C-alpha cells in the first residue's frame, strides 16, 4: 500500500498538532505504545525521521510538518473534487482579497463574475490572515500583495501596482529626515502594505521606529480619511487613491530612492482541481488592471 494513504498518517498529523504521544493517544482513543509503534513503522517505511526522541520528551521534525501540511492540502483538494463530482448545486467561489486590493480590483471582477452566473462569497482580511484561510480551506483563492512563501502555494501573477508615500499637504517632506518627523499612519502587522514598507526601509537601514510617531490603523479607508484631515503621512498603493491624487486632495511625495512597483498575486492551494477556473479569473483581472494602468498613464501624459 502507498504509505501516503496509510491510516497511520492520521496518527502523525495528530502528533504534530499535540506534540505528545500521550495526548495523541487520548485524542485517537488508542494506547500510547500503539502511537509509538505506528510512528516508528511509518518512519521505517518512508525512510524518514519524523520524531526526535530525547528520553521522555519528543520533538516532531520538519519532515513530519511538511508531510502533514501536504496531506492536509491534498485532503482539502479531494473534498473540493467530490463537491464538483456530486454536482448537486453550484459551489460558490470563495474569494479573499486584502483590504487594499478589495478597493481597486474587486468591483470590476465581481461584476464580471456575476454576469457570468457565478456564485461568489467575499472575504477581506490582511495577507497573513488570507493565507491562513487558504491553508484552513475556508477560502479557495485570494488576491494578495504582501511578501510570502510562494513555493507553498499555487500562484498566478496579476501585474504590478505603484506603491508610495502620500499626504494631504502639497509641499510635504522631501527627504527622509523630514519624513521621519511626520506622524505615520501604518497598517497592522500581517498586512501586505506594512510588509512592503518595512522591507524597503530595512534594505535602506531604516525602520518604522525611525518615525517620531506611528499610529497603527487596520483599515486603509480610515487611513485615507485621516490623511484628508491634513495630519500625517502614509504609504499605500496609489491606485487606491487615484481619484484623490488626480483631484489634488492628496499628493504623492517624492522621497529619495523610494520607487516601488510591487507585484500583485492570486494565491490558491497547490494542485487545486479548480485551477483552470482560477486562471480565467486571473486572466480577467490582469487585462483589466493593465487597461486601468494605461488609462492612468494616458491622463498623466
UniProtKB/TrEMBL annotation:
GO terms for molecular function: DNA-binding transcription factor activity; transcription cis-regulatory region binding. Pfam families: HTH_1, LysR_substrate. InterPro entries: LysR_HTH_N (IPR000847), LysR_subst-bd (IPR005119), WH-like_DNA-bd_sf (IPR036388), WH_DNA-bd_sf (IPR036390). SUPFAM superfamilies: Periplasmic binding protein-like II, Winged helix' DNA-binding domain. The keyword Transmembrane does not apply. This is LysR substrate binding domain protein. It comes from Limosilactobacillus fermentum 28-3-CHN. Belongs to the LysR transcriptional regulatory family. Keywords: DNA-binding, Transcription, Transcription regulation.
Amino acid at each position: 500500500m502507498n504509505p501516503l494513504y496509510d491510516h497511520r498518517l492520521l496518527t502523525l498529523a495528530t502528533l504534530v498538532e499535540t506534540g505528545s504521544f500521550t495526548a495523541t493517544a487520548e485524542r485517537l482513543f488508542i494506547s500510547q505504545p500503539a502511537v509509538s509503534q505506528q510512528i516508528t513503522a511509518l518512519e521505517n517505511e518512508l525512510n524518514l525521521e519524523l520524531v526526535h526522541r530525547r528520553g521522555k520528551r519528543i520533538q516532531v521534525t520538519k519532515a513530519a510538518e511538511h508531510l502533514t501540511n501536504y496531506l492536509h492540502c491534498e485532503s482539502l483538494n479531494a473534498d473540493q473534487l467530490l463537491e464538483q463530482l456530486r454536482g448537486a448545486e453550484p459551489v460558490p467561489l470563495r474569494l479573499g482579497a486584502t483590504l487594499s486590493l478589495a478597493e481597486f480590483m474587486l468591483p470590476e471582477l465581481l461584476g464580471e463574475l456575476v454576469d457570468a452566473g457565478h456564485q461568489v462569497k467575499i472575504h477581506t482580511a490582511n495577507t497573513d490572515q488570507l493565507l491562513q484561510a487558504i491553508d484552513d480551506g475556508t477560502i479557495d483563492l485570494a488576491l494578495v500583495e504582501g511578501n510570502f512563501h510562494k513555493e507553498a502555494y499555487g500562484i498566478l501573477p496579476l501585474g504590478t501596482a505603484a506603491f508610495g508615500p502620500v499626504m494631504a499637504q502639497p509641499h510635504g517632506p522631501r527627504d527622509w529626515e523630514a519624513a521621519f518627523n511626520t506622524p505615520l499612519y501604518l497598517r497592522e502587522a500581517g498586512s501586505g502594505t506594512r510588509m512592503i514598507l518595512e522591507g524597503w526601509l530595512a534594505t535602506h537601514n531604516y525602520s518604522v521606529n525611525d518615525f517620531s510617531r506611528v499610529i497603527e490603523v487596520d483599515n486603509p479607508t480610515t487611513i485615507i480619511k485621516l490623511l484628508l484631515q491634513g495630519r500625517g503621512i502614509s504609504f499605500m498603493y496609489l491606485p487606491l487613491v487615484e481619484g484623490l491624487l488626480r483631484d489634488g486632495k492628496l499628493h504623492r511625495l517624492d522621497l529619495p530612492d523610494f520607487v516601488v512597483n510591487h507585484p500583485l498575486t492570486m494565491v490558491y492551494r497547490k494542485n487545486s482541481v479548480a485551477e483552470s477556473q482560477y486562471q480565467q479569473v486571473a486572466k480577467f483581472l490582469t487585462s483589466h488592471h493593465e487597461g486601468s494602468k494605461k488609462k492612468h498613464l494616458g491622463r498623466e501624459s
